[in-house]
Amino acid sequence: MKKKEHYVNNKEFLAALIDYRHDVAIAKTKGQPKPRVPEYIGDCFLKIATHLSYRPNFVNYMFKDDMICDGIENCLQYIDNFDPEKSQNPFAYFTQIIYFAFLRRIQREKKQLDIKTRILEKSGFDEVFTADGSVVGYDSSAMNSIKESLEMKNR
Length: 155
Description:
Number of domains: 2
Shape: elongated
Mean pLDDT: 85
Number of strands: 0
Distance between the termini: 72 Å
């Protein structure tokens, strides 16, 4: 039976991170700017974040792309904190970073949804707008008067 290959090879990922850390150290001693993160490492971050977003606790969110982007951004932010002398498992290290980035994004989105809900409740509009612009439970004259009052306020 053939062994299943992982989408990120941990040994190659570790070797790439070690090489990158070496390049960063050389640039620092020469007083040069920090080198760009290699494409392979960025690809690993993308694969980890994308596959983590398929987990059942993250799969149904509308803002999954934002979660993935936050995870990759945090990996790039904390790439220098990974120490190969302490851990030989960069996959686990960066998976944790992405996981917590996902949780932070979900919390931010929940706060935004709560704010939107409170604004709607305080505005006094209990009706629900449909995709075609009509208001459920009201005739078109009520809708027109609401639109006119909003237009008057915006002038």
